[in-house]
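Q: A reviewer asked whether we had any structural model of the full assembly, not just the individual parts. We don't, so I'm hoping you can provide one. Inputs are below.
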Amino acid sequence: MVAKRIIPCLDVADGRVVKGVNFVGLRDAGDPVELACRYSAAGADELVFLDIAASHQGRGTLVELVQRTAEAVTIPFTVGGGISSVEGITVLLRAGADKVSLNSSAVRDPELVARGAGRFGCQCIVVAIDARARAGGGWDVYVKGGRENTGLDAVAWARQVVALGAGEILLTSMDGDGTQAGYALELTRAVADAVPVPVIASGGAGCIDHLAEALDPGPAGGHASAALLASLLHDGILSVEQIKTELLRRGLPIRPLALSC
Amino acid sequence: MSRLGLIDYGMGNLHSVQRAFERLGATVQTVQCGAEMEGCKALVLPGVGAFDPAMERLRQGGLAEAITTWCDAGRPLLGICLGLQLLFEASDEGEAEGLGLLKGRVRALPRRPGHPIPHMGWEPLVPANPSPLLPAGSPESWVYFVHSYAAEPSDPACSTALVRFADTAVTAAVWQGAIGACQFHPEKSGPHGEAILRRWLAWLAAL
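A: Here is a predicted structure for the entire assembly that you could use as a starting point for your response.
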């Protein structure tokens, strides 16, 4: 089975990492490229940059950041935030991003997913879904950073975007995000079982048990192909090395750390 | 170090492939037509996206013919990802005729519960016939894959590496004559991918 991926996520604004990152020996905790190199060297399987400012003037800085990352980093990386057109996708992929992540813009204009996939292939179109449990069961899709309920059902929406050409789903539980109480396993499993493409679990990681649960292919697991992590890594609570060593010990398929040639 | 011609037909992340070779000391020039191949020691055919639009673009620009002429003369070429699939005769993904430099067909990966497609992520290579990319006794290589189709060479001898997928093993890398190709992305596969590119450059330098 393809190795389960551990993916650090960096929030950036105007070319800088927004949340502080505690990395031993780091020269500049705000430089996304330096952090990307650190995480890559530590054994991260992929990286995600989310442009949380997504301002018009910040776009040029983001493109420059993508270029610098592509020069330095030898693992795949995804860029998301404020991408609303095929031109926007083109600029970031040309700059060296491997994938782009669409969120609100896909809800507004689902055909953007189809146009992007048609032009560049489904492998580089990720659709990010922010979901929150609905009273009475099921999950609603939220946009605008969780402020606006679209009324879309998360599982049905995931099916729809995959039918349009999304090659991967980045699924964030709004209920779990920031709580460190664990990934939303039921939601993750429901989406992962509903679509043929890989699902990245996000939101709620607090310890290694949570990661193991999200990636667990068993009946009670989350069935995710990958886990996205932010503060747990950035705050230095866990390292990629610790996570991978422990997940390997538990028998999950994980790319080992011994990467020397 | 000899010059590499990186084929630019609008289907791929040229940037990463170019940087990966430059980090290893190679000189890379993008190539958009046959005339620009003069002076290159080897060609690199990258590519992401779909089979038919890729072949259409290669044929429109006369690149398909130039690549065929190049390879028929026994000159070296390295295909990457879609660039591997295009070397074969045809693909389940479309109707277009492939370059046909290698015999065989590209087939859709089998759909099995619990095995998402695209096949996306890191896997260790399963060595097959030794080649300059993977000589006998090479250390285990973990490389990054992202694909929904895999080549089935008519001649199994041209398989130099396989990768496990669901309950089967599919083509991960091929080698025949002076043509080599990887289904995975060596330019995105950290130090192990770099080692594979370095071996190819060393083979090239010794020609």
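A: Points you may want to mention in the reply: Chain B has one domain: 3-205. Chain B has a mean pLDDT of 95.
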